[in-house]
Design a protein that fits this description.
The chain is an all-alpha fold. The protein has helices at about 1-100, 120-150, 170-195, 210-240, 255-285, 305-340, 340-345, 350-380, 385-419.
């Protein structure tokens, strides 16, 4: 029995050792799996980071290549535009030289800016200014595109591109610099206001006050002047009870506005009185609404007033514009007459087409003229004997004069040969 108990104890000890060994193996396996997972995650993160860097680099290279290609196309477009502009300008200078040689003030033109200095109008001045500004923009963009190509596609902002002398910016660069300075001043002023816990932008120091502060300061000053003038008017009204103190009686914005309105009203009243006086002088009857209405324009009144001055300025502008366009229309007609395809290049398609169209249009006219001439000849009568003698005598005299002139020319040639 004891032997059997000892054997049972030994079996239990062996089973417990096997279980312990299995538990140890399970613990070792779990630890190994955790270590392997951590290593795999780290490697995956490194691979993802490397892939992201590669994608960013490839994207940047693609972007630079696209920008470089775009800059090259811009340079080609600039070269084409520059050649066309130079050719047109050279042709224009030649035409002006020929016109001056022929005694004309200016060559025929189509564009308003090509008019002479004396006859150029508002449209011509506006077009000339716009063309000069656009030419500067094109030159600036060409320099910027050239620099982008030279840098391999890196972006160059207009505000970072100087002119050929390296002294000043182009139009787009100046515009961008102003916008950048404007928003930067707003950012700095708002940062300073937040840092110092200042509520209103106008309360900042003058050296740190930005555009918002300046705008608020001007608005508050205008409102302050308005309130002060109204306070003064209220004080005067409290002292004077018999009459009303009008805004025009006190310096201020409302007073200036009322004064302008009164000037318009007085000018219109005087214009109406002038109209009544004109009717009485012409018709000898007093004015009444039933009489005919022949208005006097504000600009033609004895006292023009603000409306008359405004109408005078508008009328002068329209007259200058009308005169400019009439002159340009005459020059366009002259230009079309001088540069007809059938006269200058008949062998081209336009010249051939115009020749055919003109022939088709002129054919009925020529046929009509032939018919009229034949009809006139058929209706004509024989000349009288006296008229026939007079006509014969005139032909003989003309023939003699022609022969004498020929003889004189021959004698002069002979004397010149002897000499």
């Amino acid at each position: 029995m004891e032997d059997e108990k000892g054997d049972g104890n030994n079996n239990n000890n062996n089973n417990s050792n096997k279980n312990n060994n299995k538990e140890g193996q399970d613990d070792d396996g779990t630890t190994g799996s955790t270590t392997t997972t951590t290593t795999t995650t780290t490697a995956t993160s490194s691979t993802t980071t490397a892939t992201t860097d590669d994608d960013d680099r490839i994207s940047k290279q693609t972007k630079n290549a696209g920008l470089k290609r775009l800059a090259e196309l811009s340079l080609q477009d600039y070269q084409w535009r520059s050649d066309v502009w130079k050719t047109n300008e050279a042709d224009r200078q030649v035409e002006q030289s020929l016109a001056r040689m022929m005694g004309e003030e200016n060559a025929s033109y189509v564009r308003p800016m090509d008019a002479s200095e004396r006859s150029i109008g508002p449209l011509g001045v506006w077009e000339k200014t716009s063309v000069e500004w656009l030419s500067q923009v094109l030159e600036e963009e060409a320099r910027r595109a050239e620099q982008i190509v030279r840098l391999g596609g890196s972006l160059v902002r207009p505000m970072d591109q100087l002119d050929e002398d390296g002294r000043q910016l182009g139009p787009l660069g100046q515009l961008e610099r102003r916008l950048v300075n404007f928003f930067e001043s707003i950012r700095l002023s708002e940062t300073e206001r937040t840092k110092n816990a200042i509520l209103r932008p106008k309360d900042l120091d003058a050296s740190k006050r930005g555009p918002l502060g300046e705008a608020e300061l001007q608005a508050s000053q205008a409102l302050q002047v308005f309130f002060q003038s109204e306070q003064v008017r209220a004080q005067l009204q409290s002292k004077i009870q018999d009459s009303i103190v009008r805004p025009i009686d006190v310096p201020g914005p409302l007073g200036d506005f009322e004064m302008a309105v009164l000037q318009i009203v007085k000018a219109e009243e005087q214009r109406q009185q002038q109209y009544k006086a004109q009717l009485q002088d012409e018709d000898g009857i007093p004015y009444s609404p039933a009489t005919r209405y022949r208005p006097i324009r504000p600009m033609n009144a004895n006292v023009p007033g603000p409306l008359g001055e405004l109408e005078q300025q508008a009328t002068e502008f329209v007259q200058r514009l009308t005169q400019e366009e009439k002159q340009r229309l005459r020059n366009i007609q002259k230009y079309l007459d001088d540069n007809r395809p059938m006269m200058k290049s008949r062998s081209t398609m336009l010249g051939t087409l115009e020749t055919i169209v003109v022939g088709i249009v002129r054919a009925p006219i020529l046929l009509y003229q032939i018919v009229r001439r034949v009809q006139t000849l058929l209706e004509s009568e024989p000349l009288d004997e006296i008229d026939a003698e007079i006509l014969l005598r005139l032909q003989q005299q003309q023939r003699q004069r022609q022969q004498s002139k020929t003889q004189d020319d021959d004698d002069a040639d002979g004397r010149n040969r002897k000499r």
